[in-house]
Amino acid sequence: MHQSPLLFEEPVNGRNRRVAGGIATSDVVLTAHVGGNAEVFPELLNLHVPKGATVADVTWGKGVFWQKIPAGRYNVLATDLKTGIDCRNLPYGDGSVDCVVLDPPYMEGLFRKSTHHMAGGGSHAAFRENYSDGKARSGGPKWHAAVTDLYFNAGQEAHRVLRGEGVLIVKCQDEVSANRQWLTHVEIINKYASYGFYCKDLFVVVRTNRPVIARLKKQVHGRKNHSYFLVFIKTSKKRLLTGVASSSPALGRVVPKGKMDPPQTEVPLAKKREPTKR
Questions:
Q1: Which terminal residue of the chain, N or C, has fewer Cβ atoms less than 10 Å from its own Cβ?
Q2: 115 Cβ neighbours under 8 A, 6+ residues apart
């Protein structure tokens, strides 16, 4: 779609005057989609990653994201654990890549000491197949902390290999772990801001089918049927490096080490005034 310049000069009474350009259209990239990753991914690539860029997909899996991307449009470096390359220790030089795509396991149930207890059954079987190497884990953080630990370490490594103003595309999903709500996408945005990433865009992907719960006793949280694509820019501009402010621990707010919020004190209500005796 051809667009006019945002600003151009137009002579008025012999003098140039700045006039806003552009056209009225609804043919734009939207942020919310009902569909699959393969339908959404090309749109955000067209918007944020120029043709010919070197893109390192460090959690390749079966390459689902790339199913509808024309061959040769990008220089794709496809790696994952099955190829022997960990997204937290990439074989690329500093500042050598234009774009990194990161889509690690984002369910804490895929980080278990026993494969018999791993998540990914029933309607969620595709998650174990596409987002896990199927191996049990021991040691390190547990539960939801294991998920964020992987995202945080992989984000640091992505920052190292990306050039200045390079693009990092992250796929993630919020989750309920140990009966607690965790807004993973907010935790990632806050943490990545401390690395030097500006969250430029966010896309919501809603699955087309309804998830099934195998053993439901009583529902206390809404069942997640959406996920996110987050688009980050590696930048040194401090004015852009702000996370998402929140006072809720479930939003993963980052508190500087050694600093805590002041204790909340209850403000006493004003005493009722006694009527003046006359």
A1: C
A2: 134, 135, 136
- Which residue intervals of the chain are DSSP H helices? 37-48, 125-131, 143-161, 184-195
Confidence tier at 259 by pLDDT (50, 70, 90): very low
Does this model's pTM top 0.90?
Answer: no
Rounded CA separation 229/169 (Å): 7
For residue 245, count CB atoms less than 10 angstroms from its CB and return exposed for 0-12, middle for 13-18, buried for 19 or more. exposed
Confirm if 83 and 150 have CB atoms less than 8 A apart: no
Neighbours of 92 (CB within 10 A): 19
Question: Measured between alpha carbons, how far is 210 from 226 in angstroms, rounded to an integer?
Answer: 11
Choose the weakest-confidence range: 62-76, 166-180, 186-200, 252-266: 252-266
Q: How far apart are CA 183 and CA 207, in angstroms?
A: 18
Contact (CB, 8 A) for 120 and 187: no
Q: Tell me the β-bridge partners of 229.
A: 171, 203
- Of the candidates 221, 224, 228, 132, which has an alpha carbon nearest to the alpha carbon of residue 178? 221
Rounded Cα–Cα distance for residues 178 and 278 (Å):
64
Q: Which of 10-19, 77-86, 90-99, 165-174 has the lowest mean pLDDT?
A: 10-19
In the predicted model, what is the mean pLDDT of the chain? 79
Q: Is 108 left (phi over 0), alpha (psi -120 to 50) or beta?
A: alpha
The more confidently predicted of residues 123 and 58 is 58
Amino acid at 7: L
210, amino acid identity: R
- DSSP type of residue 196: T
Q: What is the DSSP letter of 2?
A: -
Q: Is 219 helix (H, G, I), strand (E, B) or coil?
A: coil
Q: Please, which residues bridge with residue 97 across strands?
A: 162
Per-residue pLDDT band for 245 (boundaries 50, 70, 90) equals low
